[in-house]
Design brief:
alpha/beta, two-stranded antiparallel ribbon, 14 helices, 40% helix
């Protein structure tokens, strides 16, 4: 069995430039004039004892005009690791090459769709993790983020021990690991910002994380971390991430798997140290992404209809997290949080332009939650249609030696 460890690496404009609200929002992209955390993550891969893997770094830019600079920077950063393990960089340029290939006649005849390929947005980037794993002919996609480090030399051995096997008569196709904080704990501290006191996310996450300390080693989980998830080929060829999901794509993928009666199993021995840098994204912008996330996720569950071969997923299966953020009181939780956040901005220097903008955008979040975030399309049926395109595209890629050869040459 072979694994591909895929590492999305997010890059933004120079740190001297102000936040641009038209750029893609990621939690903590690295400014181009900084070194970031990627090299630290790659260094940690050296400790893995099992060497049956290759590595792909996805060079993701927050804006189109900096894409060439991001590609060059990341390619230079990985050079020092090529003597230690096979490693390749996939950038926006290769994304374009993939789309070009999928638009050719033989690909179109097989039902492949170039529109399933994108390197912009969390969900599309996670889908690219699966695509490059397929092109490298690996049975297992190991999703890892550049703000994490491996500390367990047996990590891959523990994956290979279970993924692809059967447990209690069911195929083990998706494993979830967990994050350790810098101090080694896996529980989150209360929010430092007083204006987040009404938002239940951290409280319900800690309640959900209790299963980490409980036996048995493998058990179904309502949550999964995008930077510590393992997906077998039999699953990633069939199930995709939903491109309409702006963040929280990991748990949405878990829900998509549940539609097809595939459960993620938490492996309480699969720990990764999570060392995220401080974000430079304004609070109102980060919270807006959560608004879109949970409004959409709730609507996808609400719109379920009977479909042959699929099962109905109840929100209670996602309790305590993320289910607590997907109930009927979601808009009230958002309103209370935005009210507090608005008071926070008003308490700052009144003559500061960022303060004025922060207050206005925070108040706009209330409007967005009620009138903009609810999708105009049916997210459940849309995803099923997209998933059919995905399965056909992955079916074509599984036998396409053109892109497979080009991908292998990048190692």
């Amino acid at each position: 069995m072979r694994a591909t460890i895929v590492i999305p690496s997010y890059w933004s404009r120079m740190s001297t430039l102000p936040f641009d609200k038209d750029d893609v929002v990621y939690d903590h992209p690295t400014p181009l004039d900084m070194s970031g955390t990627l090299e630290r993550a790659l260094e940690s891969i050296k400790i893995l004892k099992n060497r049956d893997f290759n590595v792909v770094v996805l060079a993701c830019a927050t804006a189109r005009d900096i894409q060439p600079m991001v590609q060059e920077k990341v390619e230079n950063m990985v050079l020092g690791f090529k003597d230690h393990f096979p490693i390749a960089v996939v950038s926006h340029a290769f994304e374009g090459r993939m789309r070009e290939r999928l638009g050719e006649s033989d690909a179109a005849a097989a039902g492949a769709d170039p529109d399933v390929i994108s390197l912009t947005g969390y969900s599309n980037i996670r889908n690219m993790c699966l695509v490059v794993t397929e092109l490298l002919r690996s049975e297992v996609a190991v999703l890892f983020d550049d703000d994490e480090v491996y500390e367990d030399p047996e990590y891959l051995d523990k994956i290979f021990e279970n993924v692809g096997t059967e447990r209690d008569g069911r195929f083990v196709g998706a494993l979830a690991g967990y994050y350790q904080r810098p101090d080694g704990s896996y529980l989150l501290p209360p929010p430092e910002e007083w204006y987040m006191s009404e938002w239940p996310m951290i409280r319900s996450m800690n309640e959900a994380f209790r299963i980490i300390g409980e036996e048995p080693r493998l058990k179904p989980t309502p949550w999964v971390f995008g930077g510590n998830m393992i997906i077998h080929r039999d699953v990633y060829r069939k199930i995709s991430f939903d491109p309409h999901v702006r963040r929280g794509e990991d748990i949405d993928f878990l829900t998509n798997c549940k539609f097809f009666d595939i459960d993620f199993l938490l492996d309480r021995e699969l720990a990764i140290k999570h060392l995220p840098p401080k974000t430079h994204v304004p609070a109102w912008a980060l919270f807006r992404e959560n608004i879109y996330r949970f409004v959409y996720a709730r609507e996808k569950l609400r719109r379920q209809v009977p479909v042959e071969g699929l099962r109905h997923v109840d929100v209670r299966e996602l309790d305590p997290y993320p289910g607590s953020c997907m109930r009927d009181d979601l808009e009230d939780l958002i309103f209370r949080t935005c009210t507090l956040m608005g008071f926070f901005y008003l308490s700052q220097r009144a003559d500061a332009r960022p303060v004025e903008l922060g207050f206005q955008e925070t108040m706009n979040n209330v409007h967005i939650a009620r009138y903009v975030a609810p999708p105009e399309h049916d997210p459940f049926l849309w995803y099923l249609e997209f998933r059919e395109k995905w399965e056909k595209t992955m079916g074509f890629l599984s036998g396409d030696e053109v892109l497979a050869r080009e991908m292998a040459e990048r190692l």
